[in-house]
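Quick start: read one record
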Amino acid sequence: MTTTTTPTSMNRAVRNFDKPLWRRLVLNRESATVVLLILVIAVSMATVRGFSQPITLNYLLLDTAPILLIALPMTLVMITGEIDLSVGSMVGLASVVTGLGVQAGLPFGVAAVMALLAGAIGGAVNGFLVTVAGLPSLAVTIGTLALFRGLAVGLLGTTAVTDFPEMWTALAKAKISGTTIPYIMVPFLILLAIFIVMLHFTPFGRGIYAIGLSKDAARFSGVHVERTKFILFVLTGLVSAFAGVYYTLRFGSARGDNATGLELQVIAAVVLGGVSVFGGRGQLYGVVAAVLLIGVISSALRLAGITSDVINVITGALLVLSVVSASVLAWLQRARRRPGRPPHLAASTAS
């Protein structure tokens, strides 16, 4: 009878549960991101003039809403070990489709549904090329990033559509009565609850983690790997299109270059929130905290008079630091478990 060795990724998954529950919940990257968010908010309120004003929270949530929305399905995609770089261009394409629909005399609701349909089709194209054609998601979504952006610019040219119903544009910026929280947080919280249940409390979600750890092991365990990935890409396109409709109403303008570079902000937040770039780990609360952390830092720096170029440098440095720190921690854990190490070295490392 032949023996088989357990893959390293599966060993990692088992070792994650050899610690008490409180340690798994508290001593992780997600909790560290939450703590860092609280510290940055406290420091900003104490040192940055105007940061503690209620209007700052309102604009912070309005600005980060598209990233918060797209980060939800992106988290699930990256946990499977894939990536979708086309989300920013899909926001732009959905914006253009919405604008063209309104310009053609269609009711805004119909134009928005057309944009959502375009997002679902774009996600299905990505999913088909990755799961059926077997192409790497990085190459596929780089290609569709250019494709969707080219379609958006080609359909509308260099012009912009700005004639949207005032009721809808006002709703996109309106606040919940008696608060400074914008209404866009309501659909976000609904989607957040749906994605949390789907990822953490269903067999479908457990399959997502299994695919990220080992797609072959997941397939032999009964997980429909290709179907799961296809669904996630469709969801990513659909939610990105919804973010594009909101983006259009938020700024009152449909342009082909809307949301250029947004995909990098989404991926930075997802990685900073604790999702492994190799797949298999990550939780949504860490990603939400990371989006808010980047938003708080950007808002505080803008109020302090820092230019957008410097803010981008800081955001990029945070992303690099998060990736490097994860690699360093993984290396230290492997070093602690290396067989044949002298006991005093293992003890010193553990301390």
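Residues 1-10, 343-351 have pLDDT under 50 and may be disordered.
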